[in-house]
């Protein structure tokens, strides 16, 4: 089946407006669908001038500015495959993703202010390209901040404005097959190397468009706002593709929830009369600490969405009572980068809610719960959450690695898609996500693999071995508790801790992977076959004294030592 690249195929001019809200409240702009179309076409023509063709991969490392949306849609318009890298990732992470996807061009900006913190994106982008010299990657950079001291290499760098100058604002869309790739988005893998999740044109668009419409009960007079970053799947599906395919009026927010003051999100809801609001439990928990003073007018709100991690009861009730003033259903949407869109979710006013439960499957989705042996459990049960049949938005592959696609998602339980999450079904058939059951951590709604963080820590010359587990955190949900064993004669001190925090994490992966706790571990609890018993480390991190059966440990004394030296305070 042939399908047109689903971007305003008739040059459709809609009068709806998107609101762009900058990092500073004084910086705002309205963007009509007509302006969006013209900017997308201009960018599409510019990419073509740079030699980008259908099927080429384009890396995008941009903050939450309209150019990010223009560039991703420009790729879609000419059939190029975008690979957006969250603009908080390090140069090494960016390089790894550029190389893996074999990108032909990188689009970035000179910099961005996140709150009052300046991030020199172009500097990080240039460092990334230094690291992956084997590829010649031209860089197109926008002057977001208009900074004079941006690192510049005449041989491959091009200013965005120079490139857009004089290009036509009309561009015929490329005809695509429905199963042609639309984008790659990297997500953490339990072996440490990120996976390039591949989504295709029609199934993904259909699914994000449909879920957006029904899950947010979207109507034409709504103003919709999702606070996620487009660098993650939530921003792809529910800032760009889903809302735009519905012609929705939405808000694109560049800033952070507590800048310049803790009422920023409520101020924006009041300013634009937002009716459908979508955020993450970590943001709710952060804002709960401050209350809602001074009172903003939130009477425009109709539906409140949440995504990213299980929402705890206290946060759910605060969201419902204080933000929604008990008028607005809280829609707890469970889904993944891999699922493309919501798979377990209530529908506003139609599904009776239970705080903390993502409730029931979306139309056509067939969840099941399996035990360790792959046997399907009926009725009330707890086990592995899997899905029986595909739905339009399911990922189509791991870019360049079909074997990994099969082994990660389909081999453990043949015939099912394996989510990697644990789940409980109650007597009413409602689903309750209990958290990851693979070696993954969910920090502020973002997945990290323990292997990835461990690999970063062991790169430090003083570290012999590292093991990372999660510990509950009041705002982030989970945080990183790291055990490090040093090489002989190396000293565990403040400087080393700082180096591990800075070098290992900020430089290798990105700030979300900064360890909260670092414990010196003269030895790690291992089985006789040499496997680290992470369960025991998790219990030490959480101060759970009842450790259960330790008989398989090679040296049980290690546990006592680790317990006696466990960290009470964050590093
Ligand atoms: P990502 O692919 O980065 O979006 O992360 C997907 C993971 O986030 C899922 O596998 C879950 O572990 C977690 N997650 C996302 N949404 C929810 C939710 N509503 N409730 C519980 N966990 C969630």
Automatic annotation (TrEMBL):
Family stated for the protein in its record: Belongs to the ATP-dependent AMP-binding enzyme family.
Organism taxonomic ancestry: Eukaryota, Metazoa, Chordata, Craniata, Vertebrata
GO MF entries: acetate-CoA ligase activity; AMP binding; ATP binding; propionate-CoA ligase activity
EC number annotated for this UniProt entry: 6.2.1.1
Swiss-Prot/TrEMBL keywords: ATP-binding, Ligase, Lipid metabolism, Nucleotide-binding
Protein name: Acetyl-coenzyme A synthetase
AMP-dependent synthetase/ligase domain boundaries: 26-399
Nucleotide-binding as UniProt keyword: yes
Catalytic activity: acetate + ATP + CoA = acetyl-CoA + AMP + diphosphate; propanoate + ATP + CoA = propanoyl-CoA + AMP + diphosphate
Gene name in the database record: LOC107569626
Domain AMP-binding enzyme C-terminal: 452-531
Subunit structure, as described in the record: Monomer. Interacts with TFEB. Interacts with the 'Thr-172' phosphorylated form of PRKAA2. Interacts with CREBBP.
